[in-house]
Amino acid sequence: MPIVLGKDKVVALYAAAAERQWVVPTFCAENQTTIEAVLAACQAKATELGTRVPVTIAMTGRYSHRAQAVHYAGSRNPETGLELFLSDCEVLSRPAGDYPDVDVLTHFDHGQYDDDAAWLAGDLSRFSSVMYDASHAPWELNLEVTAAFVASYGDQVLVEGAADEVVDATGGIRGELTSAERAAEFVERTGADMVVANLGTEHRASAQDLRYVPEAARAIAERIGPKLVLHGASSVPVPQLATLFSDGVCKVNIWTTLERDTSPLLLRAMLENADKVAGGAAVQLAAEGLLGPNAPLAGRADIEFFTSSWRNQVVLAGMRQIIASYLDLWYK
Ligand SMILES: [Zn+2]
C-alpha cells in the first residue's frame, strides 16, 4: 500500500502497533538494496503472521556521524540522494508492488537543526515522521528550536526530538544516561511526540561497554509515557532488546549492523566464486598472495556472478536475515 503519511494516520498506526505490544522498528537505508531487504523481510513476516506489519524506513541528511543523503547517490549530491530515497520508497511501496502487506512509514533521521535547516523548513509532506536533532546545541537552545519546529510542523508529521546533550559546555562529549527529569522537561517544553534518550547504547560515544539499560528507559517512561526512541541498537546483542515494548520504547532505530555484518558475507561469496567473479584477475590476485589456496581459479568469468545485481543480491539476502531476527523479537 502507499506510504502512510499525515500525522493522524501515523499516530493511528503507532496506536495499533501498541495494541499488539509491537515496537515499530526503523531501519535506515542509504541504497535501494537495503530498502528492498527491509520490505522483503517485513512481507515474509506479514505472510507468516497472516496480518499486515508496519515498518519505518529512514535516511539521515547531512548528519556528520553518517550523511546518508550524501551517500545515496553516486554523485554524492544530497539533494539527489534525498529524491532517490523517497522515490525508491514510493515505488517499492506502491499498491500493486511486491510487498503488498507492509505499511511503510518514511522518516527523516537525525535532521540537523543547523546543517539540514533548509530541508527542515521546506516541504516535509513525503515523510511520515521527522527527527529534529539539536542535541549538539546547548540544552536551552535545543529546547527552544525543537519547540519552534513542533509549532511549525507538529500537526503535519510525527516529531521525534533528542533529549540529549552530546557536547557539554567545555566542548567535551557527554556520555551519561538521560535522566527522567530531563526527558520530562524536554517533552513539556517542546511538545515533541517522541523522545530520543541516551539509554546506554549511544552510538556517538566510543565506550567499549555499550549496553541497553532497561531501568533507565522504564524510569523515563514512568514520567512521560511510552514515547521513547532507542538509537544505536546495533551496538548491543539482539536478545538484550527483547523487552523494549514493556520498557516504554515505541520506536527503535537500526542501521550499522545491516552494512557492517553483510560486508563479510559479500567478501566470502566473492572469494568462494573468485574465478566466476573475476576471471583471469583472480589468478593475478592469487599470484599476489591475496587469494588463498582454496580459492577457485579454474573457471571463467560468468555473467551470473560478475554483476552489481549478483553482489546486491548477496547483500540483500544477508540484510534480510538480520532484519528478520529483529522482527522475530518484536512482532509476535
Ligand atoms: Zn541515531
Overview of the structural elements:
The protein is of the alpha/beta class and 332 residues long. The protein is 43% helix and 14% strand. The chain has two domains: 7-260, TIM Barrel, CATH 3.20.20.70; 263-318, no CATH class. The protein has helices spanning 7-19, 32-49, 68-72, 78-92, 117-120, 139-153, 180-190, 214-224, 256-260, 263-272, 274-278, 280-287, 308-330, and strands at residues 24-28, 53-60, 102-112, 129-133, 158-162, 194-196, 228-230, 249-254. The chain has an eight-stranded parallel barrel, surrounded by seven helices. Helix 6 links the parallel strand 4 (129-133) and strand 5. The longest helix has 23 residues, at 308-330.
Q: Give the helix tally.
A: 13
Strands of the widest sheet, in order across it, are: 1-2-3-4-5-6-7-8
Task: Examine the secondary-structure arrangement and name the CATH architecture of the largest domain.
Answer: Alpha-Beta Barrel
Bound molecules: zinc ion
Largest sheet: 8 strands, parallel, barrel
Regarding CATH, which class of the largest domain? Alpha Beta
Amino- and carboxy-terminal Cα gap:
22 Å
Helix content: 40-55%
Superfamily (CATH H level) name of the largest domain: Aldolase class I
Note the run of SSEs as H and E: HEHEHHEHEHEHEHEEHHHHH
C-alpha Rg, in Å?
A: 21 Å
What do the pLDDT scores average to? Answer: 93
Topology-level CATH name of the largest domain: TIM Barrel
What gross morphology would you assign?
globular
SS-derived structural category? alpha/beta
Residue windows where pLDDT falls under 50 for at least 5 positions: none
Indicate the proportion of strand residues: 5-15%
